[in-house]
């Protein structure tokens, strides 16, 4: 990427060099510039590279913003260097011209030429003084010793995996928000929440659209694949591509349409590993009885609600677009109210609580975090962000895939602890935790009822597919019990704070509960994951929608169950599901043990 900038600038600012030097010296010029390029990298940038952990750039908007700054710095540095190189070449040009002007002799006349003492003196002066000056200007010691730095720089530019991840992000954005492909290709993005059109500065090429079509095809999204290639044909014509390129795209489209129809006929329109339209492209096949009554060629998700539902993905996307709404009957019992637990102190400054769902319980605390706290969270982790991982099928927490595309770090709320590997402590985080305990009546401090704060930043199409935060502790094996014992039980509750506004997209959605929470700086979402007896509530399947525009910063605090037994003990009957009651000003409505005062941990 950086070298492409160099060649662009070289073409713009140094067109006369080739005329003066001749084509045989252009490779030398390029080699010299590349060898000298590391000298243009500031010490500050080199130190920043050294202390930044290895991460996938596409998973973090913060990393991409730094990449943009690096590119701009490189552009300015190369422009300055090309100007300097031009001056050196001008000096060499003058030296050569002077030599040609002062000497009409050939190599065969060398002996006769130097027999004249003046000629010999000028030759010695020219080769002993003027040529070394030119050498020192072009091949100084600082240039020669920079090879290692350029190698280090190349190691930290985007990798092939970053481009692959970014391509997947573009695919995911279109798939989730059902964006008009032609508008999207031109850099125009429509905000699903407000309908506002966001204009971009760049656009996708026909070959970018072809790549997205192939990606869709290889993943089994045969319907999207044909649409991407159709858009590639449109873009090729729009950009006046050659007829051969257009014909190649058209041939690819026919091949994909044929494959689409074969899959539809033999396997049906959808499964976990493929998807087609409900009707074929072939006109003869369309005349079949099973296709005649189909009015909408796209599949419409149903209303079944469980963790294994194949409709979950479509419902997830619909909520991300703001389409799936609760009915008036489902909304009528939801309230917004001030939360103070009848405490005189809290009545002076109550929490602002909005109920999003009662079954399961999901709520949002408005204006929960202060600006200084959010800035502290972000600045504490900014240079420690690494690629987010997820639970694998083997139960290991080292999964890296398109299922979760963000970067994260951990922040400890125990201010008297020493720094651990990959973590840091924050007095601000402790204040937030104390406030969270008062608001929820749960013990949340790290290793005293909660986990450390996870702080995450999302990149291109940053997403976290639907999942549950808990895995359950009802009827578990001894091995699973021993594992939970080390953590203080399962994740009974989740608190998610939004550390930034997001220009478009990036909502947190619960497809089985029909809940969409749009990110708003300072707000904090809260929900229960399990019942009293540790059963997973599959209605809390949730995920983070892809970020369409802007940068999304969040922080998660997971609350562990065994520290909450005083007020939220297990039920004696295990044959029914016992949901924890919604947060209420009357603490006795939340727990039967309300006669025991809640005492927040303060360290």
Quick tags:
single chain; 603 residues; alpha+beta; Serine Threonine Protein Phosphatase 5, Tetratricopeptide repeat; Jelly Rolls; 3 domains; 10-stranded mixed beta sheet; 4-stranded antiparallel beta sheet; 22 helices; 22 strands; 15% strand; disordered N terminus
Q: What does this entry look like structurally?
A:
With 603 residues, the chain is of the alpha+beta class. It folds into 3 domains: 2-104 and 112-155, no CATH class; 160-190 and 202-292, Alpha Horseshoe (Serine Threonine Protein Phosphatase 5, Tetratricopeptide repeat); 344-589, Jelly Rolls, CATH 2.60.120. Helix content is 43%, strand content 15%. The protein is built from 22 helices and 22 strands. Strands 5, 6, 7, 8, 9, 10, 13, 15, 19 and 22 form a 10-stranded mixed beta sheet that branches. A 4-stranded antiparallel beta sheet has the order 14-20-17-18, with helices on one face. A hairpin with a 2-residue loop joins β3 and β4 (274-275). α13 runs antiparallel to α14. The chain is flat, with a radius of gyration of 32 Å. 34% of the residues are buried. Residues 1-53 and 303-308 have low confidence and may be disordered.
């Amino acid at each position: 990427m950086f070298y492409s900038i160099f060649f662009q600038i070289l073409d713009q600012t140094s067109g006369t060099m080739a005329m003066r030097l001749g084509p045989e010296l252009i490779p030398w010029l390029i080699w010299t510039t590349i060898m000298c390029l590391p000298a243009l990298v500031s010490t500050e940038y080199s130190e920043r590279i050294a202390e930044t952990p290895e991460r996938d750039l596409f998973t973090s908007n913060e990393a991409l913003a730094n990449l943009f700054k690096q590119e701009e710095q490189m552009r300015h540095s190369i422009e300055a260097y090309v100007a300097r190189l031009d001056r050196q070449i001008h000096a060499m040009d003058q030296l050569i011209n002077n030599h040609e002007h002062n000497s009409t002799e050939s190599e065969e006349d060398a002996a006769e030429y130097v027999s004249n003492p003046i000629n010999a003196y000028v030759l010695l002066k020219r080769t002993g003084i003027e040529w070394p000056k030119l050498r020192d200007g072009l091949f100084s010691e600082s240039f020669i010793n920079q090879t290692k730095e350029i190698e280090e720089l190349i190691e930290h530019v985007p990798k092939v995996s970053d481009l692959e991840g970014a391509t997947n992000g573009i695919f995911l954005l279109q798939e989730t928000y059902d964006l008009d492909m032609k508008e999207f290709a031109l850099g125009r993005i429509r905000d699903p929440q407000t309908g506002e059109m966001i204009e971009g500065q760049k656009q996708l090429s026909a070959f970018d659209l072809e790549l997205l079509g192939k990606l869709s095809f290889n993943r089994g999204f045969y319907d999207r694949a044909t649409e991407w290639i159709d858009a590639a044909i449109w873009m090729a014509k729009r950009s006046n591509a050659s007829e051969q390129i257009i014909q190649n795209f058209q041939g690819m489209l026919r091949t994909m349409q044929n494959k689409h129809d074969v899959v539809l006929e033999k396997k049906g329109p959808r499964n976990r590993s493929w998807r087609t339209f409900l009707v074929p492209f072939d006109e003869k096949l369309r005349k079949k009885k099973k296709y005649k009554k189909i009015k909408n060629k796209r599949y419409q998700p149903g209303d079944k609600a469980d963790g294994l539902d194949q409709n979950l993905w479509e419902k997830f996307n619909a909520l991300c677009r703001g389409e799936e709404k609760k009915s008036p009957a489902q909304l009528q019992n939801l309230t917004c109210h001030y939360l103070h637990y009848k405490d005189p102190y809290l009545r002076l400054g109550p929490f602002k609580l909005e109920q999003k769902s009662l079954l399961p319980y999901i709520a949002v605390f408005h204006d929960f975090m202060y600006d200084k706290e959010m800035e502290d969270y972000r600045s504490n982790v900014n240079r420690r962000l690494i690629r987010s991982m997820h639970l694998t099928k083997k139960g290991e927490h080292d999964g890296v895939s398109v299922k979760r595309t963000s970067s994260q770090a951990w922040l400890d709320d125990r201010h008297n602890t020493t720094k651990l590997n990959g973590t840091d402590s924050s007095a601000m985080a402790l204040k937030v935790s104390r406030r969270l305990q008062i608001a929820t009546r749960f013990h949340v401090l790290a290793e005293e009822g909660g986990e450390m704060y996870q702080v995450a930043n999302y990149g291109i199409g940053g997403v976290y597919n639907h999942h549950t935060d808990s895995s359950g502790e009802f009827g578990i094996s001894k091995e699973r019990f021993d594992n939970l014992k080390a953590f203080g039980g399962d994740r009974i509750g989740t608190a998610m704070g939004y550390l930034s506004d997001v220009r478009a997209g990036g909502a947190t959605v619960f497809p089985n509960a029909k809940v969409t929470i749009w990110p708003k700086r300072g707000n904090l979402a809260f929900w229960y994951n399990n019942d009293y007896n540790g059963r997973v509530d599959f209605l809390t399947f949730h995920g983070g929608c892809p970020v369409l525009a802007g940068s999304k910063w969040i922080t998660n605090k997971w609350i562990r169950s065994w520290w909450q037994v005083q007020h939220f003990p297990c039920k004696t009957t295990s044959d029914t599901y016992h949901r924890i009651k919604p947060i209420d000003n009357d603490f006795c409505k939340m727990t039967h043990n309300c006669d025991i005062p809640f005492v927040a941990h303060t360290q």
